[in-house]
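Regression test case RT-17, inverse folding.

Input:
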C-alpha cells in the first residue's frame, strides 16, 4: 500500500486537481470534449487502487457514455496499476444496465423476464445526462 502518491504522466498537477483526486466521496465529471475527463478518471482510479484506499475486495466502477472512452480508461488504468487494475470495472451506461438485468433477470417473474437474446432500448429523448 502506497500512501504517498503522485500523478502519472498525462496530466498537469494543480492544487485543485489534486484536491479532486484525493476527495474521498464519489466524483461526477461533466466537461466538454478534450477537457481531460478520461485522464482525470484514470488518475483517480490509479490513486484509489495504488494507495490502498480502495482495498481488496472493494472495486472501482467507472461509467462512460461512449464505448471508446470506456475502453480507453480501462487501458490507462491497467497500464498504470498492473494486476491491481483488475479491480477496476469500466462500462458504458448501456452495458452496465444490461449487466444488472443479466445478473438478476432470473429473479423476475416469468411473465416479465427477458428472453436470453433480449436487447435494452433507451429512449434518447428521455435520458438526461
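Golden output:
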Amino acid at each position: 500500500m502506497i500512501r504517498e502518491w503522485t500523478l502519472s504522466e498525462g496530466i498537469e498537477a494543480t492544487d485543485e486537481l489534486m484536491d479532486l483526486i484525493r476527495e474521498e466521496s464519489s466524483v461526477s465529471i461533466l466537461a466538454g470534449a478534450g477537457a481531460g475527463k478520461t485522464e482525470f478518471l484514470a488518475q483517480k482510479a490509479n490513486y484509489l487502487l495504488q494507495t490502498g484506499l480502495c482495498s481488496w475486495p472493494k472495486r472501482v466502477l467507472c461509467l462512460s457514455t461512449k464505448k471508446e472512452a470506456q475502453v480507453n480508461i480501462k487501458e490507462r488504468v491497467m497500464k498504470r496499476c498492473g494486476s491491481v487494475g483488475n479491480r477496476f470495472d469500466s462500462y458504458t451506461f448501456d452495458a452496465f444496465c444490461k449487466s444488472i438485468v443479466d445478473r438478476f433477470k432470473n429473479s423476475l417473474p416469468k411473465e416479465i423476464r427477458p428472453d436470453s437474446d433480449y436487447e435494452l432500448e433507451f429512449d434518447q429523448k428521455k435520458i438526461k445526462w
